[in-house]
Amino acid sequence: MKKMKFKVITLAILILFPVATFAQIMKGNDNNHRVSLGFKAGANLSNVYDTQGEEFQADSKIGLVGGLFLTLPLTDVIGVQPEFLFSQKGYQGSGSVLGSKYSFARTTNFIDVPLLVSFRTGEYLSILVGPQYSFLVSQNYTFTSDLVSISQDEQFDNENLSKNILCLTGGADLNLGNVVISGRLGWDMTSNKGDGTSTTPRYKNVWYQATIGYRF
């Protein structure tokens, strides 16, 4: 598990540093194009859906999200914004069978690495869109009924960083000085198996995200 976290952090550094260097070269001495680092925190409202179209109903679940983002202006309008986030997703539900009530919930903990292109539409608003790579770190599943209660935790010691979920995400940033208020929408696209092949996940995550951050 420690090796996995170390490799993910190393990957984030390898992504952020060259892009930041490139942006620094592009902006030259223009102080209006300022590279900045910030942190953000907020919440996900997530759920899953079955791509095979079978009946699977669940309710949305709230999870935490937080991490770092790097603002890299390339021109007055276009920029690049890589991020490195801890992100909780999942779903929950309840029902009854033969008069016996039950409830269930799954929480999945990811390291999300969005690589976003930013389009500045005015003094305060930016539109962002791009791919995101999500690495599953751990998950918890609970099931509770009148007869039984089950809780299962799983830790994933996956040393192959090519195993990930490719996602698509987009949204907007409201820039109020150093404060950044962000809204995002994202969903899973494909899962990479680590051997050069990929597949569409049967149960895809889809989530809404709201954060508030501070840019230095």
In short:
With 216 residues, this protein is mostly beta strands. Helices cover 12% and strands 64% of the residues. A hairpin with a 2-residue loop joins strand 7 (165-176) and strand 8.
Structural summary, described in words:
The chain is mostly beta strands. The protein has one domain (2-215): Porin. Helix content is 12%, strand content 64%. The protein contains one helix and ten strands. The protein has an eight-stranded antiparallel beta barrel with strand order 1-2-3-4-5-7-8-10. The longest helix is centred in the first third of the chain and has 26 residues, at 2-27. The chain is elongated, with a radius of gyration of 19 Å. Mean pLDDT is 85; it is low at 22-32.
Task: From the structure above, extract its key features.
Porin, 216 residues, 1 helix, mainly beta, elongated, 8-stranded antiparallel β-barrel
Write the layout of secondary structure elements.
Blueprint lengths: L1 H26 L8 E15 L10 E13 L4 E20 L2 E21 L4 E21 L3 E7 L9 E12 L2 E14 L5 E2 L3 E13 L1
Antiparallel strand pairs: 1-2, 1-10, 2-3, 3-4, 4-5, 5-6, 5-7, 7-8, 8-9, 8-10
Distance between the termini: 32 Å
Strand order of the largest sheet: 1-2-3-4-5-7-8-10
CATH fold annotation: Porin
Helix content: 10-25%
CA gyration radius, whole angstroms: 19 Å
Query: Based on CA inertia axes, which overall geometry fits?
Result: elongated
